From TrEMBL:
This is GntR family transcriptional regulator. Signal peptide: none annotated. It comes from Saccharopolyspora ipomoeae. InterPro entries: GntR_C, TF_FadR/GntR_C, Tscrpt_reg_HTH_GntR, WH-like_DNA-bd_sf, WH_DNA-bd_sf. Keywords: DNA-binding, Transcription, Transcription regulation. Residues 9-76 form the HTH gntR-type domain.
Amino acid sequence: MTEPATPLMTKSDVAYDKVREKILSGEFPPGSVINQATLARTIGISTTPLREALRRLKAEGLVELGAHRDAKVTELKAEENRDLLEMRRSLDPLAASLAAQRRTKDDIAEIRASLEGLWAMPGDPDYEHLLHHRRYHRAIYRASHNELLIETLEGLWDKADRYRRFALEVDRGPEARAKKDEEHRMLAEAIIAGDSEGAASVMTEHINTSLAAQATRRLRS
């Protein structure tokens, strides 16, 4: 049987991925101005597909678009981070609980694979580190087999990455990082064992002591 063809990436898709990576990696920090003509030349495309990519990023809340040629990376806001944290405190434990009830053999294999080499994020994480961290949580979300919940949590994760990086500007120390590593391990074990209450409990603690919670305190101060 012939495998389905992989959809070709458009120039707009390429621009979207590149600009999004620059924002989430901190290369384009909050509040920075993006000159579209300059960026288009750097990427090697015209401003039309770049503009399309920026509209997608605007819809995700990552950039603001003016009437002219410049775009601006959205500033961090204590209120937005608070809202993200409140939603994740409810939805992440639900996803973990459902994952423990519904995980398949493939889900378990992906959770285990994503846990390999996963360490609490250092003070200046590179983009690959952010992606690895996301892969682990995405594996848990997908094991819930609730498509609306997965879609919602994926969207929240997109917005939260910049607040994680902001929180990491202050070193949380080796003990705090070791605690996060232990929570990752315990959460995976609870889900694999089918312990829904235990998985929800670990996830709740994981969110309450997360980088997002630290970012909220910093932004308010």
